[in-house]
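Intended use. Records such as the FTR1 family protein entry shown here are meant for training and evaluating sequence-to-structure methods. They are not intended to support clinical decisions.
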Amino acid sequence: MDLQAFLITFREALEALLIVGIITTYLNRTDYGKWKKWVWLGVFFGIASSYLVALLFQVVFTGFGTMGGQNYLKIGIMLVSCGLLTHMVMFMAKQSVDFKGKVESKIGVIITSGSILNMVVHSYLVVLREGVETVFFFAAISGGDIQKAIESWGALLGLLAAVVVSVLFFRGTRKVPLGLFFRIVSMFLLIISAGLFVQAIGILQDLGLMGTLYRTSGGEIGEIYNLTWLMPEHPLDYEQYLRDAGQAPLLSGQIGIFFKAFLGYTQNPSLEEFLLYWLYYAGVLALLIREKQKHFRQAAATAPVNI
């Protein structure tokens, strides 16, 4: 969970810090530095509201747990998180081209309107959006224990890494290729998203809410392969294999539980888990290729013609 928390916090905090940094830098450059205090006021309220959302979400999740509906809420959170992360990857693919210019354009419009309230609201919504997304993703990767994810080393290191990258970017002592950063982070977020998706499929099948095309002779959901001998997905599976087979698997269950959380690894996947996992990657790749081709066509259409 620490690695997932790191990547999610890094991505969300980096975008919020970059946007706020671009706003304050733009205000200084346009002689509107006196407005910066209103930007930071919006940031403060955004952080406070995000924390309240985390508390509310934890109460709701705990309430569902006491009513026996926690698994259903968990499935919903995983599927929605998968959708949001996929949308985030697509969004980052578009925005990484001229991220700074687009933010400055929006701030220019706000300054032209001359409304301090608009500046506060804009800063507030920027931070709140990233905060709410972080809370939602933390709920998905931690099984509802949001506080545990917030207090993890991954979350802290992700925040620190985002601060370092932002400082380097705005100080200009080193050029930080944001496009490259966004592509790398997008790749890891895509892996997390696929893992959440396949875990949701597994829970649906365990609860009998989703059928299968492949069953054993005993009527149970069939597995297309079993890698427990290589790497069990949980320490309990490790102990069970050791007891039944009389020998230990090659890799520890602690390693397996890490890959299950990060990659959605399953030691004995069903046909649907295996196929849908790879179909998800194929679908997102197709969307990214289509988006890239669309960008090239638009660039070619707007390019000057030499006569």
